[in-house]
Specification:
Chain lengths: ~525, ~550
């Protein structure tokens, strides 16, 4: 069928290329960045950073153009269903581009300090972003898997980028081994799913799963009624469950959910801080996009099976992440555990599976990108060559040394905890609201208990977020009197993040409206 | 409906002041900053006096404001106050000005940040009392934690870090659980099977006047146009009358009650209070005891009673071998335990060799707030009037006592009871004011607390004579330890040479103690104007909780669950 079509029409049409214009722009820029690295002398290699920023901006513009012109007529399919541009894809791509821009802003200063200012760094960041964006718009197991691997491979390199540091190398090795393993598990789940549904297209799989599940249930019920053996089709149920479990296990790895979270603290600590920032926001958002597509579209028919599993994992993840973070001294490790617990909160949106939950997921991912980037940005500003500056205590007295930076850090931390008037609160509000709405709709109590458990754990999370505020403000001692290592790009990134968080916290209407307009028509 | 701007003005004025200080003044201009901040607080107090124009014969919610804010989730910027809120807001602005004035010498480091935080706290607290939208209320309610955390954590005593984080996390537990309740209430307003049964009489009763009722209906129209629910507090209260009694209502009651009970604080949720009080700077203690504790009791009055009337009057949900009891029985029991436990604990700090006066006042607050809760859950006009008045009175006398303790601490740098004795010889003015406030606290007739305790006890007696009897025991204990304290500190001879040259009250100190003393006398001698403010709203709440209760008649038997 596919071949027949390919013979009669051209394989790639202009319309298809227009659909992936932002990715094409980024890819081109990434290639140019590679060349620039070779041509430019070392001391001018910062130009590559600015060039990459321009590339991201261009991609963002082309994304905005897409939204402007075809925003009302979504979704669009391209490349024979390999790619689907819908509101979901547009929103996630916007998050990835913002994350990439902020990451580049953080990186320039960091690489200067480390003496590793190389053009290919920015090229890798752009390639990772391209991978993320294809995850957002991929609508086929194959395109999804390839883009996931594109992202993962670039991150393996990025984590090892400060090649003279042992910790960085160790982190990259761990990340690579575990990442490759988890990709294998994920691929196994995908192949099973293909075997059951007979298609790699997400939509087709979704249709066949939701017709299969009632038939299997009918067969099992009929067999239970007569006492005989069930119909042959019931034999698919273990396969379906296996596929579901393999897929969720692979994805638990990617989003760093318990019990597959162990890599995160080591990798976050060892990786260059700017890469950690990008890894904890962009890569996590991309993994959630993949999760969303596979579970809420392809496996929607099996919600009754996977919702309790995800609920249990989310509950444990939230607890483990928060309680482990309490004892950390290294701020990068602390934020790694906080990011584990946040993976748990984000899972709540998928578990809720209604508009509120999905809005919560997308808004929280967006805010999470801003506040995590900001927090890592402040940590980078403390760094100078020879002094790592990533212990919590290194922030001591920042409130008096650099009041503006300290105030921003405090806002990032309070937002991570979810205090009202910050964006973090709005995200959590929707996540919990989604759970409660689902609990009322399904008449199941465990949704309420899950919400209660999750929200009680936010109190624990406040304990360690407030620790940053405590060391910054409550003491009279100042850890280090020398000025901070700031650069215009870094400062801009931080200020943009703060403004975004506050705007979302105080007047979230436009953000929610945009998200709802784009997600609403998906019949989620 | 025309918007009145006065509430927003009063609420946001302190925040504007904070921004002005941040933007215009330098760190080392501390004398300018403290004068400016105090003047700004006084300005806010004067502005809040405008609220006393509240129309007492009409009652209900007045000075309404309504703007679109986040239509997509049904949250609006709605403000409005009834008589109870009016009294509490004026008390807040008064205590704010006093707190700022009292800090001039006490605070010696990082003055700029201090006054900025004090002003921000003021905005958050006034916002809590003025909100008519639950989402807005929740924002203010939770944000108020942050400035207080800094006030305790930076300018507190030796153990301040521990006290600050304990205060923050402890009260946070309550408010996050409340968030789930808030969400559930919001989704219930979208449940048409439930909301269609709300009668307009209930809305009118709770709104109290035509404009407020109109506001509710226009809010509903806007919500329906957007396809959302609403956070309007009046509408949620009205929904309470049709909310079926059962596990859901009890859990909702519990979700709200936990948040407020920790704030109050009721036994057994009171353990954060002594730590926070002892470590907080004087002004922090004044605001904490005078205002922040009221957020809890105000929450019970504004939310728990009218929103969950069936749960509030429930005395028969559970049957155990001890007897039959319900939600109200639990709350009343905890209130009485708070009254007696707080008094006993306070007494311990007089007897103890190195008893801390501040801890004593803190525990007496637990006792006093228990009285508020008992009055509120007496569920009759006398009791609720008494409870509300006790909120105001407690704000006056506990604020004053903390100030007095702060004054002596500034002079002696100790708060140990055993260090003092015979102070009345060297500080006659101080001793006189202290006596006045101690007498207020133990409920001497012609002073403020007598009125409120009398009303609350009378209400409790009407509901169940045994409750009043147990509470009266607490009052006797109260009198006991306060008099004992006064005796140990002020009478006898000066046996500690360090006390011989203590200066008496100065002009600035008289300036902030006098209004509180005058207010205490005024309420004690002629409470009618104050009671008039709260009468109509209180009657509406009682009517909502107990529809069969005829105001002015003898107490009927509590009806069982319906």
């Amino acid at each position: 069928m596919f071949l027949l079509q390919a013979n009669t029409t051209s394989i790639i049409s202009v319309a298809d290329l227009q659909l992936i214009a932002p990715e094409l722009i980024l890819t081109a820029c990434a290639c140019v960045a590679l060349v620039m690295e070779v041509i430019l002398p070392y001391r001018k290699s910062k130009l590559t950073a600015y060039f990459s920023l321009v590339g991201v901006a261009l991609a963002f513009i082309s994304l905005a153009v897409q939204w402007w012109y075809i925003g009302n007529a979504l979704p669009f399919d391209g490349f024979y269903g390999m790619v689907r541009i819908d509101g979901f894809a547009l929103l996630f791509k916007a998050i990835f581009l913002i994350a990439a821009a902020l990451a580049i802003g953080l990186s320039t200063r960091f690489l200067d300090i480390e003496g590793e200012q190389h053009g290919e760094y920015y090229s890798l960041i752009l390639f990772a972003t391209v991978g993320m964006m294809f995850i957002a718009c991929g609508y086929d197991l194959i395109s999804l898997y390839i883009s996931l691997e594109l992202m993962a491979l670039t991150f393996y390199v990025l984590v090892a980028f400060t090649k003279r540091e042992k910790k960085s190398n160790e982190a990259a090795m761990k990340y690579f081994l575990l990442g490759a393993f988890s990709s294998g598990v994920l691929l196994y789940g995908m192949s099973l799913l293909y075997g059951i549904a007979g298609s790699t297209n997400i939509g087709d799989i979704g249709n066949s799963v939701s017709t299969l599940v009632p038939r299997i249930q009918g067969a099992l019920q009929a067999a239970a009624g007569t006492g005989g053996l069930p119909d042959q089709i019931a034999g698919l149920r273990p396969l379906l469950l296996l596929a579901m479990i393999a897929l969720s296990a692979g994805l638990f790895f990617k989003v760093a959910a318990v019990p597959f979270h162990m890599w995160a603290p080591d990798v976050y600590e060892g990786a260059p801080t700017s890469v950690t920032a990008f890894l904890s926001t962009g890569s996590k958002a991309a993994s959630f996009a993949l999760y969303w597509r596979i579970f809420s579209v392809a496996l929607e028919g099996m919600r009754a099976d996977w919702a309790p599993l995800l609920g249990l994992v989310a509950a444990i993840t939230i607890m483990v992440g928060n309680w482990a973070a309490v004892t950390q001294e290294n701020s990068k490790r602390l934020l790694a555990y906080s990011s584990i617990s946040n993976a748990g909160y984000l899972l709540l949106g998928l578990i809720a599976g209604n508009l509120y939950g999905y809005l919560g997921l997308i808004i929280y991912l967006f805010v999470y990108t801003l506040m995590n980037m900001g927090a890592f940005g402040v940590i980078i500003s403390l760094r100078r060559r020879g002094i790592i500056g990533d212990n919590v205590d290194d922030l001591t007295g920042l409130g008096q040394k650099a009041p503006f930076m300290a105030a921003m850090m405090a806002i990032f931390m309070l937002s991570l905890g979810g205090l009202p008037m910050t964006g973090g609160f709005i995200g959590k509000y929707f996540l919990f609201g989604g759970l409660i709405q689902r609990g009322a709709a399904d008449g199941k109590q465990w949704y309420y208990w899950l919400a209660g458990w999750a929200i009680l754990n936010t109190v624990v999370s406040f304990y360690y977020y407030v620790r940053f505020i405590k060391v910054m403000y409550l003491g009279d001692r100042i850890a280090d009197n020398r000025p901070l290592a700031l650069s215009p790009a870094l400062q801009t990134a931080l200020v943009v993040s703060v403004i975004g968080i506050i705007a979302l916290g105080i007047y979230p209407q436009p953000f929610i409206k945009l998200a709802q307009d784009l997600l609403g028509p998906l019949n989620l | 409906m025309t918007n009145s701007y006065i509430l927003s003005f009063i609420t946001w004025l302190p925040a504007v002041g904070a921004i002005l200080i941040l933007a215009l003044m330098k760190k080392d201009q501390s004398s300018l900053i403290k004068k400016f901040a105090t003047a700004w607080f006084a300005l806010d107090f004067i502005a809040s006096l405008w609220l006393l124009k509240y129309n007492r014969s009409t009652g209900g919610m007045q000075f309404l404001e309504d703007y679109q804010w986040i239509p997509i989730i049904g949250a609006r910027y709605q403000m409005g106050v009834d008589g109870v809120s009016v009294l509490l807001i004026v008390l807040t602005t008064l205590l704010g000005a006093i707190a700022a004035l009292s800090s001039w010498e006490y605070i010696q480091k990082r003055e700029k940040e201090y006054y900025v935080l004090l002003l921000l706290l003021q905005t958050a607290v006034i916002g809590v009392f003025a909100s008519m939208d639950l989402f807005l209320f929740y924002l203010f309610f939770e944000v108020s934690l942050v400035p207080m955390y800094f006030l305790i954590g930076i300018w507190g005593g030796e153990n301040r870090l521990y006290a600050a984080i304990k205060f923050f996390l402890y009260t946070l537990v309550g408010s996050v659980v409340m968030l789930l309740g808030v969400l559930k209430m919001y989704f219930l307003t979208q449940d048409t099977a439930l909301t269609s049964r709300i009668s307009s009489e209930t809305v009118n009763l709770l709104a109290g006047n035509e404009q407020a009722a109109q506001l509710v209906s226009s809010t509903l129209q806007a919500a329906a146009a957007n396809g959302t629910g609403t956070f309007n507090i009046l509408y949620m209260q009205a929904m309470g009358s049709v909310l079926p009694m059962g596990t859901m209502q009890i859990l909702l009651f519990a979700a709200f009650a936990l948040g407020f009970a920790i704030k109050v604080p009721m036994f057994p949720f009171h353990t954060w209070l002594p730590d926070a009080h002892v470590e907080a700077p004087t002004a922090g203690s004044v605001i904490l005891a005078g205002i922040l504790l009221k957020l809890g009791t105000y929450g019970f009055y504004r939310f728990n009673l009218p929103m969950f009337p069936a749960a509030s009057r429930d005395q028969s949900s559970w049957t155990t071998s001890f007897g039959t009891f319900g939600v109200r029985s639990v709350i009343v029991f905890l209130a009485i335990v708070s009254i007696i436990y707080g008094a006993l604990a306070a007494m311990y700090f007089v007897v103890k060799r190195d008893g801390d006066v501040k801890k004593l006042v803190a525990y007496s607050s637990v006792s006093s707030m228990g009285m508020v809760m008992l009055g509120l859950f007496a569920l009759n006009p006398n009791g609720v009037n008494g409870g509300v008045m006790q909120m105001v009175n407690h704000g006056i006398y506990s604020g004053a006592l903390f100030l007095l303790v702060g004054i002596i601490y500034e002079r002696r740098h100790t708060r140990n009871v055993a260090e003092f004795g015979g102070l009345s010889h060297v500080m006659p003015g101080y001793a006189a004011i202290f006596l006045g406030m101690v007498m207020t606290a133990i409920g001497l007739p012609l002073l403020a607390v007598f009125i409120s305790e009398f009303l609350a006890l009378r209400g409790a007696f009407e509901a169940n004579p045994w409750w009043a009897a147990w509470a009266a025991l607490g009052i006797i204990l109260n009198a006991g330890y306060f008099l004992w304290l006064y005796q140990r500190m002020f009478f006898g001879t000066i046996d500690n040479p360090k006390n011989e040259r203590l200066p008496d009250l100065k002009g600035r100190e008289w300036a902030y103690m006098a209004p509180l003393m005058i207010l205490s006398l005024w309420i004690g001698v002629y409470p009618k104007p104050f009671l008039e403010y709260i009468q109509q709203p209180v009657n509406a709440v009682v009517k909502q909780v107990r529809p069969d209760y005829v105001i002015g008649e003898k107490e009927p038997q509590i009806t069982q669950n319906r």
